[in-house]
UniProtKB/TrEMBL annotation:
Its cofactor is pyridoxal 5'-phosphate. Its EC number is 2.6.1.11. This is Acetylornithine aminotransferase. SUPFAM superfamilies: PLP-dependent transferases. It comes from Colwellia psychrerythraea (strain 34H / ATCC BAA-681). Binds 1 pyridoxal phosphate per subunit.
């Protein structure tokens, strides 16, 4: 197909809504954990499309599933079900606490469904008074108006008129702040089992178990937003499995499709029955193409070999970053779990995470930020060890250029 215009970064400003500020680099192809731009410059991908490309780029299992299903059937309305959706749901149920699954297309949509379900459950079981939702400051749950209001960063929800009501925010890792807010009028507590956008903050054991206990005490549902932490990211299939805490509702997306849009809400039969026919839906949710790809992701990730490999690769990152820091002293802390790692900049470099990201890009390695002062790494879960070493060497060069 011949094109009659130049597809360059400047075209973005001409034709796209200005809600993003993408870099000058336009990637055009990827293989594994490497990406090439329009000029054929190579990059090591430590960003994973923000924890989405769980198996890197063009993984043969995913490409195979896409091609095979692409020649069968792409889309059906929810007037019919389909084989890939049923297979994927069965595998999710068999692998988790859940008994029922709802499919949609994104993390925000899976969280929207979870919040609507919690409100409907509370109304049906306890009455109209039980409607309070509690989430946590610096939390992130998506960009729909409901999820962005539940998210604990007012800057994202301000400026769009009156917000959905009866939503309050406690402090992460501060059980007393949750105790002060929770009551028998609370219908749900929504929490990330490791805060992602909020700074790669792990919960303390006492805190996460205390949240579960408070929910039980007040008959509130516990919703785990595992959009970023799920599908192997932290070294278990889902993060709750390593915390000794089981939620009532769990949301999943990002890595679940390995780059193909899909989201899922998982829950128990008893809670699920409140989303009876007609109460919620999604045109594309559970489409055969997305579910076929997601099934290939799950089959690949949910193995002892890959999950154990995540922990080993995480150690390579942490050791490598600590070795870099021993030379240049730019990080006050390396934190996180599995392959969701945050390097916190020292006082001297506060607010400069984006500068480090840009310098890394110049050196041929793609990283992320989590707030203004934290560099985030969310690579492929199967990134080869040599790509970790090469990417960290490039990242070190970027640091040298800045210190």
């Amino acid at each position: 197909m011949s094109e009659h215009f130049s597809v360059e970064r400047g075209l973005f400003d001409d034709v796209m809504v200005p809600n993003y500020a993408p870099s000058a680099v336009i990637p055009v192809r990827g293989q594994g954990s490497r990406v090439w731009d329009q000029q054929d410059k190579e990059y090591i991908d430590f960003a994973g499309g923000i924890a989405v490309s769980a198996l890197g780029h063009c993984h043969p299992a995913l490409v195979g599933a896409l091609k095979e299903q692409g020649e069968k059937i792409w889309h059906l309305s929810n007037v019919q079900t389909n084989e890939p959706a049923l297979r994927l749901a069965k595998k999710l149920v068999d692998s988790t606490f859940a008994e029922k699954v709802y499919f949609c297309n994104s993390g925000a949509e899976s969280n929207e469904a979870a919040l609507k379900l919690a409100r409907r459950w509370a109304l049906d079981v306890h009455g109209a008074d039980k409607s309070q939702i509690i989430a946590f400051k610096q939390g992130f749950h998506g960009r729909t108006f409901f999820t962005v209001t539940v998210g604990g960063q007012a800057a994202y929800s301000d400026g769009f008129g009156p917000k959905p009501g009866d939503i309050d925010h406690a402090e992460y890792n501060n059980l007393d702040s949750l105790k002060a807010l929770i009551s028998d009028k609370t219908c749900a507590v929504m929490i990330e089992p490791l805060q992602g956008e909020g700074g790669i903050v792990s919960p303390t054991d006492e805190f996460i178990k205390g949240v579960r206990a408070l929910c039980d005490q007040h008959n509130a549902l516990l919703i785990f937003d595992e959009v970023q932490t799920g599908v192997g990211r932290l070294g278990e299939l889902y993060a709750y499995m390593d915390l000794g805490v089981t939620p009532d509702i769990l949301t999943s997306a990002k890595g679940l499709g390995g780059g193909f849009p899909i989201g899922a809400m998982l829950t128990t039969t008893e809670i699920a029955k409140h989303l009876k026919i007609g109460t919620h839906g999604s045109t594309y949710g559970g489409n055969p193409l997305a579910c076929a790809v997601s099934e290939a992701v799950l089959d690949t990730v949910n193995t002892t070999e890959v999950l154990a490999g995540i922990k080993a690769k995480a150690k390579l990152y942490v050791d490598g970053l600590n070795a870099i820091n021993a030379k240049y002293n730019v990080f006050s802390e390396i934190r996180g779990k599995g392959l969701l790692i945050g390097a916190v900049l020292t006082e001297k470099y506060q607010g400069q995470a984006k500068t480090f990201l840009n310098a890394a890009m110049d050196e041929g390695v793609m990283v992320l930020v989590a707030g203004a002062s934290i560099i985030r790494f969310a690579p492929s879960l199967v990134i080869p060890d040599e790509d970790i070493a090469l990417g960290l060497a490039r990242f070190e060069k970027a640091i040298v250029s800045l210190v």
